[in-house]
Amino acid sequence: MKFFIDTASIDQIKEAKELGLLDGVTTNPSLMAKEGITGKDNILKHYATIAALVEGDVSAEVISTDFAGMIAEAKELVEIADNIIVKIPMIMDGVKAMSWCTENGIPTNCTLVFSGAQAILAAKAGATYVSPFIGRIDDTNWDGMELIKQIAEIYAIQGFETQILAASIRSSKHIVDAALAGADVVTCPLSSYLGMLKHPLTDIGLAQFLADYRKGNS
Ligand code: G3P
């Protein structure tokens, strides 16, 4: 399973990289705005900075909602670096744009996916990644993880090669559940990865080991 960080924060990306577990980065227009990155030139420069910082895939999202605009943006984004993946929303022109990108060797991440039907379309369009938004499904009182299970089953039955990128992941429990449900990748803030470290018995056990060492060596 790959670990992506879902942020446009350079500090968070650097910190995640220091853990030695970082396989890639996902961003979106909201995350860019959160870091105060606005204006096309600044956004493209920021993508270049992120892409130079990590070896793995970096998803950069198109803003256009029409086919021609998405294609123009896709061409521009992949010029930034070899590890840029063009993130395209699951709308009709998005499906056309993803199919075009596939035919033209441009890797894509199909975003804003909330159903098995949409995930099938993403795979048929040849998306490199499909991004079901788990937390946002949970927010509507449905079980987001059920969608990961469904997509994993469909892709296995059909032999689709699109990788399942569990997005809108908000806790360490989500990460464990996504791993069990068959996600190929999870993307989340650094806090969710750090949450995986925590267990009170680890802290109690370590304190005991160190206390016993001190007793034996005093
Ligand atoms: O990767 C998608 C993510 O950025 C959305 O997360 O927490 O805003 O639903 P959230």
For the record, the CATH class is Alpha Beta
| C-alpha-based Rg, rounded | 19 Å
CATH topology: TIM Barrel
Bound small-molecule species: SN-glycerol-3-phosphate
Q: Could you list the spans in which at least 5 consecutive residues all have pLDDT below 50?
A: none
Number of helices: 11
The CATH architecture would be Alpha-Beta Barrel
Per DSSP E runs of 2 or more residues, the count of β-strands stands at 8
User: Which of globular, elongated, flat, extended, rod-shaped describes the shape?
Assistant: globular
Briefly note the structural class of the backbone. alpha/beta
**CATH evolutionary superfamily:** Aldolase class I
Task: Report the β-strand fraction as a percent range.
Answer: 15-25%
User: Helix proportion of residues, in percent?
Assistant: 40-55%
Number of domains: 1
The largest β sheet comes out as: 8 strands, parallel, barrel
End-to-end C-alpha gap: 45 Å
Pattern of helices and strands: EHEHHEHEHEHEHHEHEHH
Strand order, biggest sheet? 1-2-3-4-5-6-7-8
User: Would you tell me the overall average pLDDT?
Assistant: 97
Report on the architecture of this protein.
The chain has 218 residues and is α/β, with parallel strands linked by helices. Helices cover 54% and strands 17% of the residues. The chain is built from 11 helices and 8 strands. The protein has helices spanning 10-19, 29-34, 40-53, 67-80, 92-103, 116-124, 134-138, 144-158, 172-181, 190-195, 200-216; strands at 2-6, 24-26, 57-61, 84-89, 108-113, 129-132, 163-166, 185-188. The protein is globular, with a radius of gyration of 19 Å. Bound molecules: SN-glycerol-3-phosphate (G3P). The site of SN-glycerol-3-phosphate (G3P) has 11 residues, from α7.
